[in-house]
Amino acid sequence: MTKARIALIVGILCISIFPILVKLNLTPGLISAFYRMAIASAVILPYMLITKKFKLPSVKNIVLSMVCGTVFGADVAVWNIAIQESTATQATLLTNLSPVWVGIGAFLFLKNKPTKNFWFGTVIAILGMVFLVGFGTFLNFNFDLAFCFGILSGMLYAVYMLTSKNILNDTTVVSFMTISVVSSAVSLGIISYFTGASFTGFSNLAWLVLVIQGLVCQLLAWLLISYATKNMRATRVSVSLLGQAVLATFLAWLFLDEKITLQMIFGGIVLLFGIRITFYQKQLNVFKIVQKRKTKEVDLIVKP
User: Which of 38, 141, 164, 237 has the most other CB atoms within 10 Å of its CB?
Assistant: First the structure.
């Protein structure tokens, strides 16, 4: 479990730079999403074929992995468009409602139901997110297409998390990632082509940003997050990913000269506290198990 948590933390660090790169607005949202998946595919697919580490899953899991890839690709594209058509703050807040959708989906479809601590921690984490982005954001909400895309992004992400959790129970992480990311690239490529998007003509900086998105924000980040998802509850992973908002805010201050206020610092602390609550239940259960074992040992000593 320690390895899974470390993988999750590093994965969150890798995806935290993504909103900063998108804010540069160097390429259209849909094309940015396509190249993120295509570059990741161009690296992982040859590697898997050369090293022969690819293990063919069952037909059912192959189909589900392809669906996951298509859904995740759509999620990234929709989120990119939401950021570019409204504000990064509004889009980030709306898409980060995904833990709520994951919790509802887990309650309806998974054997491991969300605990009370999950719901309590999620509420606190989202409240922290509200403080982080500022209450003024709600006053400036435009219930337009960008708003709908922000909500849709969170829902698509929830579908991806819940489906991938079931697949990863029976499939290796790298095999799932290979099928998933290639499916994302193909589906986004087809959509980009038929919508008349341009695949070339970008600046050198834009290409550099696309490469970073593909290798760091997608390939490395989601290999690590998928490993964490395989070994942890999907609900806990989804809430933990809210931590990227705190890191993204810090990076925006560091590289884009965006201001950080005391309210934002307070919101970040509350958000992280909410994430911490979702992990508390397991430690409590472990404590109870240890206590039960100690009680049994005492009974064995006392009883003749």
Answer: 164
In this model, does residue 241 exceed pLDDT 80? no
* Cα–Cα distance for residue pair 15/225, rounded to 1 Å: 10
Instruction: Specify the pLDDT at position 162.
Output: 80
> What whole-number distance in Å separates Cα of residue 199 and Cα of residue 208?
15
The torsion angles phi and psi of 119, rounded to 5 degrees, stand at: -65, -40
Taking only the tens place, the pLDDT of each residue in 94-108 is: 666 667 777 777 777
Please state the rounded mean pLDDT for residues 4-21. Answer: 84
Query: Residue 122 corresponds to which tokens in the numbers above?
Result: 């999620």
What is the identity of the amino acid at 172?
T
Identify whether the C-beta of residue 19 lies closer than 8 Å to the C-beta of residue 248.
yes
Q: Cβ contacts of residue 252 below 8 Å, gap of 6+? A: 19, 20, 23, 258
> Which backbone phi and psi does 178 adopt, to 5 degrees?
-60, -50
Q: What is the DSSP letter of 241?
A: T
Burial 83-99 (b: 16+ CB within 10 A, else e): bbbbbbbbbbbbbbbbb
Angle at the Cα of 62 from the Cα atoms of 58 and 66, rounded to 5 degrees: 170
Secondary structure, 3-state, 142-206: CCCHHHHHHHHHHHHHHHHHHHHHHHHCCCCHHHHHHHHHHHHHHHHHHHHHHCCCCCCCCCHHH
Cα–Cα dist 113/131, whole Å: 29
CA 190/CA 74 separation, integer angstroms: 12
The answer to whether 12 touches 240, Cβ cutoff 8 Å, is yes
